[in-house]
Amino acid sequence: MTYHGDREYWAEPIAVEVDQLDLVNMGQYNVQEAKTRLSELLNLVERGEDVVIAKAGRPVARLVKIEPPTRRELGFLGPLHIPDEFYEPWTDEEMGFPGQ
């Protein structure tokens, strides 16, 4: 039971669906072993293997490789044709000055 201020409430467990076959196919390490072998586990993950961290034999976390973002090109509108007149200076009327 957890107390928050003057109220008490029951913390709800978080339910996560895990494919048991996936857990069998990946390495599972308890917390202490994961702490001791973290560099080695990160090397495994870097090579594409998933690693499961367990607490008291119960899987609680999965280490997976982060893929670098793909390079995207800007310019989704395609090439724009800008007429040469675009670069010419504005007239007084276009600037909003009263006629002289």
Detailed description of the structure:
Mean pLDDT is 78; it is low at 21-25. With 100 residues, the protein is an alpha+beta fold. 25% of the residues lie in helices and 21% in strands. Strands 3-4-5 form a 3-stranded mixed β-sheet. Strands 1-2 form a two-stranded antiparallel sheet. It contains 4 helices and 5 strands, in the order ββαβααββα. The chain has a domain at 17-65: YefM-like fold (3-Layer(aba) Sandwich). The termini are far apart. It has helices spanning 20-25, 31-36, 38-46, 92-95, and strands at residues 2-4, 7-9, 27-30, 51-55, 58-63.
Q: Could you name the key traits of this structure?
A:
100 residues, YefM-like fold, two-stranded antiparallel sheet, 4 helices
Short description:
This protein has 100 residues and is an alpha+beta fold. It has four helices and five strands, in the order ββαβααββα.
